[in-house]
């Protein structure tokens, strides 16, 4: 692994899901960069799943982290959702919310915002329950492995979603390319890949803890996705960046690709 890039073991020992949630997803009334980015993420995901019509039976979320925001619109378009992550503490934090355990993170302001985007067809609590019903499994995932979900036996997915994950999981461009090919093995031909990540970011902060990020530009992402066997249907860039004390990204990108029939 590239010298200095945050290791998998460091994530297991130092990634604090609660600090991460409170820093990036508290969704208060302030106009912080983090709140603005979260609103943009929610709007884009709403458009992809509820307007553009990316839908099907099974969605696998790669690198869910401890978050559920990325699945709130997806649960309107997919019957079954599988959440995945590498770190055990993130999986535990997800389970805590799914099981409504004491101390679970309060996503209600985010859920209310998504309900408004979707026309207030349902109230926040109904929306949360719909998502809980849709998430059938929470699995360990390692995108650097040829079988990212290990021995788990699943049907091929209609959609792979990955938000703010691969930049942090891949220390260099060859690993990033390989990860995309590894993930492609989980997706049926004709299925959709939805990628969201930071552009040109080399690190992000959680409190005093610094985590590495693979600095990618649009050209590198598009080339890697095509090489993995996808036709790119959409590539949008938003210029909003995180607070300078939190990360050094230059905007974020949203990509939708379709897996070609031929193998990658």
TrEMBL record:
Origin: domain of life: Eukaryota
Binding residue positions for S-adenosyl-L-methionine: 20, 25, 63-64, 69, 85, 90, 142-143
GO molecular function: nicotinamide N-methyltransferase activity
GO cellular component: cytosol
Record-level GO BP terms: methylation
CDD domains referenced in this protein's UniProt entry, alphabetically: AdoMet_MTases
PANTHER family (alphabetical): NICOTINAMIDE N-METHYLTRANSFERASE, NNMT/PNMT/TEMT FAMILY MEMBER
UniProt record similarity statement: Belongs to the class I-like SAM-binding methyltransferase superfamily. NNMT/PNMT/TEMT family.
Official protein name in the record: Nicotinamide N-methyltransferase
The species this protein was found in: Myotis myotis
